[in-house]
Amino acid sequence: MRLLSIELRNFKPFRHLRLPEDEDAVLPEGLIIIRGANSTGKSSLFDAILWCLWGSDAVLATNDELVNFSSTHCWVDLVIEVDGTRYRLKREFSRADGMSVLLSVEKENGWQRIAHKISDVSSKIREILNLDLKQALDTLLVRQGEVARIANAKPTELRKLLGEVYNIELVRQMGSQLENLESELDIKIGVLNGQYVPPGYIEDEIKQIRQNVESFEDSQKEIEGRVAQQEDNLKGLPTEDSIEELLENQREIDQRRTTYEATMVDRDQFLTDAGVAEADERVVAKKLDLLRKELVRNKEEHETTLANISNIDKEIGSISGTEDDLRKKIETLETVDVKGDSPAECPTCAKPLTLEHRDEILVEYRATIAEGKRKSKELAEERRELVESKEKNETRIRDIESAMDALDRLAAKQKDVVDRRNALEESEEKLKSALSDLGIKDIEKLLSKHSARTLSELYSLATQLTSDLESLNRERESIQKQIETQTQTIERKTRDIARMKEIAAERDNLKSLLNHTKHVRLKLVSGFVADYVVQKRLIGIIRGATNPYIRSFTNGQYTNIDFIAKAGKGRGGAGLVLEVRDERDVAKKKSSQLSFGDRTAISLGLRLGISKTMSSIRPMKDSPAISPRIRCVMLDEPLAGLDQTRRSEVVRSLVDDLSFKQIFLITHTDVQEWQGVSMIDVRSEGTASVAVLREGSEG
After folding, report:
1. CA-CA distance, 421 to 510, in Å (whole number)?
2. Residue 245 — very low, low, confident or very high, per pLDDT cuts 50/70/90?
3. Which neighbouring-strand residues pair with 33?
4. CATH 3.90.1570.30 for the 242-447 domain, yes or no
5. What pLDDT is stored for residue 34 in this prediction?
6. Residue 643 CB burial class (10 angstroms; 0-12, 13-18, ≥19)
7. How confident is the model at residue 554 (pLDDT cuts 50, 70, 90)?
C-alpha cells in the first residue's frame, strides 16, 4: 500500500487540510518527515489515516473526541494504491447522524463504488490489504513511546508478539473457525460501535435542543410583535400600486406642463418675430395684409433705386471716358511745336493750328475735365445715398418676409399651445380622479400624514414597509419550521436513548464472547504451534531483515541480532530473549544490558525489519504466497531517545531505504541530514492547525 493523498475536515486540530494541495498531485515516495512543535497535530495525521482505514478501534480517541471543537462532524478522505490499483476511502462521523463510510475503486470512467456499509467496507479493506487491524497496529504504526516495546518485552510477550504480527498460516488453519467467529464478532462490534452514542450525550443534546426551541419561541414572539407593528404602519397608507399610479400621474403632469410651457415660449417668440401682441386670427390676418402691401411697396422702391444706381454708374462711366480721351489730346497738343505766328498742323484734326488756337483748345479741354470731375462727385454722392437706401430697403424686405413667415407658423404653434394645454388639463383631471378613488383630496396632506416630502419618498416608504413585513413573515415561518424540526429531533433522540442502551447491552455480550474466543485461539491453538513456527523459521527471516538496520542505526557498534529460546511458565509456552553483539566490547549482550538509547535504536531497527518482512515472508514452507500488501510505515517520534549522532544515522539510513514505498517519520527534534528529504511542516495558526508539504529540496 502507498498513500497517494489525504484530505480531512474538522478532524482534531485541523479544520481543513489536503496533502498534497494540488488535486492532480500525489504524496512522494521514500522518507517523509513530519515536523512541528508539540501539540500542533503531527500525530493527528496518523490518527486520521488509521481512523479512515479501520475506524475508531484504530485510534486512542472516541469518534466524538476526533471532532474539532468548532464543529459537530468530521471526515477523512484517503486515496491509496495497492498493487497498481487505486482505492478511495471516505469516512465521516456526525454527532447527529453517526458514522458513514464509502469505499471506491478507480476505473477508466472514474471512481466506482464497491462498498458503503461499515461492515462491508471493513471486510473489503481486510481483503485488499490482506491485513487485520491488530497486525496493522503492530507493524504499520509505531506510536510515540512504544519504540522500545519489542526490545523491552518479556520473553513470553516477545514470542507472542511475533506470532501475532505474522499471522502464522498454520495457526489460522487450526483456528479458522475461531478466527471466522472473531471476525464476525469484530464486525458486529464495529457496527455497534459505529451506531453507538452514549445516552448521556444524547440527553445533553436533547437538553440543548430544548433550549434552542425555547430560544426560537422567544424569537417568534418578538417577530410577531414586529409584524403587528409593521401592519399598523401600513394602515392608512395607499398600496404600492396606488402610489405608483399617483406617481406616474404626477410625472405625466410635470412632463406635460414642461412641454406646455416650452411651447408657449416658442409661440411668444413667433409673436415677437411677427410683431404682434397676440395670436388672434383676425389680428394675424390684418397684420399679414399690411405686411404684404408694405412688401410690394418696398420691392417697387428697391427696383427704382437699383435702376437709378445703374443710370448713375453709366453716367459716371461716360464722364470718366471723356476725361481719359481729353487727357490724351492734351498730351498730344502739348507736344506740338508752334513757333510765332506760323501755324502748325493739328495732330487731332489735321487742320492748321496756331499757338493761340492751341492754348484755347487746351483751356477748353481742361475746363471740360474739371466740370466732369465735379459732376462725377455729385453723382457719386447721389449713388451712395441710393445704395444706403437700397440696403435699408433690403433689410426691411427681409424683416417683412421674416415677420410674414412667423405669422404663417404662428397659427400652427398656437394650435400646439392649445393641444398641450388640453393634455395638461387632462392629466390634472386624471390625478384628481385617482385621488378621489383613494379618498384623498390633496397630495400634500397625504405626504404630510406619512412624513414624506415627495410621492417617490412615499413609494419608497411603502415598498420598504411591505418588504420588511414580507421578510418578517418569512423569518417567522422559518423559525416555526425550525421549532417543528427540533421537536421532531427531540422525539427521535428520545427513542435513540432506549436504542443505545440495547446496543450497549448487545455489544457488551459480543465483547465477552469475543474475549473468550480469542483466549481459546491464542492461548490454546497459537501456543501449541508458536514454538515451532517462530523458532524454526521466523527468527532467521527477522534476523536477516533487521541486522542491516541495527548496524546502520548504531554506526556499526551493534550487529547480529538474535532471539534465544527460553522456557516459559504456565500455558504461555516458551519465550524468546533478544540478544545482540556489541562490536566495541566484543561481546554478546541481552537487551536488558543495553543503555536506553541503544535499546531505542535496536528496537527501531527491529520494528522496521519486521515491517519489511511482512511483504514477502512465508513462515512455513506450505504457507500461502499472499502476504500483507502494506509497503509503508508510520513512525511517531521514534528519535526522542537518541542523541544527535544516532538521529543522523537513522535519518540517513531511512533516506536510502528502498524496502518501503513510504516512511512517515514524526519528529520535533533537529536532524541535520534532512536536506533534500520531503517534509510536512505542521504549525498552529490561531485556534487551528495547518500543514504544508514541501517535496525534495524544498524542505
Report:
1. 99
2. confident
3. 665, 679
4. no
5. 92
6. exposed
7. confident
